[in-house]
Amino acid sequence: MPTLESSPVGFNLLAWSAPISEKMHPIAERLKKIGYDGIECFIDYQDVAAYQQFGNHLQQLGLKSTCVMVMSPDENPASESSTIREQALTRLKDAIDRAQAMGASVICGPFHSAFATFSRQEPQDAEYSRSAEVLNAAGEYAKQANIILTPEAINRFECYLCNTMAQLAELIRRADHPNVRAMFDTHHANIEEKRFPDALQTIAPVLAHVHISENDRGTPGGGHIPWDDTFRTLAEINYNGWMTIEAFTRNDIDFANSINVWREYNDPWDIAENGYAFIKAMQKKYSN
Questions:
Q1: Would residue 278 be called left, alpha or beta, if left means φ above 0 and alpha means ψ between -120 and 50 degrees?
Q2: What is the biggest distance separating any 2 CA atoms in the chain, rounded to whole angstroms?
Q3: Is residue 2 packed enough to be buried (19+ CB in 10 Å), middle (13-18) or exposed (0-12)?
Q4: What is the mean pLDDT of the chain?
Q5: Which end of the chain is more exposed for a tag (fewer CB within 10 A), N or C?
Q6: d(CA 181, CA 195)
Q7: Are 131 and 177 contacting, i.e. CB atoms less than 8 angstroms apart?
Q8: From the CB of residue 250, how many other CB atoms can be counted at a distance below 10 Å?
Q9: How far apart are the C-alpha atoms of 264 and 231, rounded to whole Å?
Q10: How confident is the model at residue 2 (pLDDT cuts 50, 70, 90)?
Q11: How confident is the model over 146-182, as pLDDT tens digits?
């Protein structure tokens, strides 16, 4: 039976940059030396060729890849506007094309709705249905690319449609496609969930991606996330997918400003080196 130690460990390049380029090659090489199995990249509107080129470099290094993305208000899958929903599906298909060009296996993120866009009311049943319809169509497109879409529940200050695993589980149920599963992010769960074990058990049947993120977005293990509960429960539900560190800095000023990162938490190489050691130690602890 697979154990937590068989889960691949990844690192999200957003600690350095949202756009990918050859400038990221030395970073990828050093992450490989640390021991990482893969790298997660942000999908924006760069040409497909940029993702293919970077993916080729990762493959030469023996690294796998995953991707993360967000949606703008003009690409909101939950929108009342059929035109905006069509644009959402186009955006998701374009992201799948870029992820496929890079050789990625997963696209994660809060792409069930528009990031930091609020209706000033609680989420409506019709919004879940509209989002699920778009996700189902995107899942069908992702199927031919052999990519799993993993929508993310994020905190109340960045989203209103999906804050908890219970909400996310319902959305995935409605989407009803094998290529549309779910992700769990420890940073957001720290804000929104009552207890990590209950949240993970709730999402366990469709869980396909995990972000290892400290409460302050710094080095995992350096804050107050209930890490023992997290890794113990992941072991109990036989999770063996990606464990990817998502941490933020002000290296990319435009990106940092867009997500309200106003100070440095830890140096990115401190996050990468000590975060990797922390994850491997916790995997070993709960694989016995």
A1: alpha
A2: 52
A3: exposed
A4: 96
A5: N
A6: 21
A7: no
A8: 13
A9: 27
A10: low
A11: 999 999 999 999 999 999 999 999 999 999 999 999 9
Structure tokens at 241: 């997918």
Instruction: Give the pLDDT confidence score for residue 1 in this predicted structure.
Output: 62
Q: 163-173: b or e for each residue (b if 16 or more CB lie within 10 Å)?
A: bbbebbbebbe
Verdict on whether the full-model pTM lies above 0.85: yes
Q: Give me the sheet containing 207-212, strands edge to edge.
A: 148-151, 106-109, 64-68, 38-42, 9-12, 242-245, 207-212, 182-185
260-263 long-range Cβ contacts below 8 angstroms, 24+ apart: 261/217
> H or E segment at 89?
helix 82-102
Task: Summarize pLDDT for 193-222 with one digit per residue, the tens.
Answer: 999 999 999 999 999 999 999 999 999 999
Amino acid making up residue 19: P
List of domains in the chain: 4-285 (3.20.20.150)
Written as six digits, the tokens of 204 are: 């366990």
Q: φ, ψ for residue 256 (rounded to 5)?
A: -60, -45
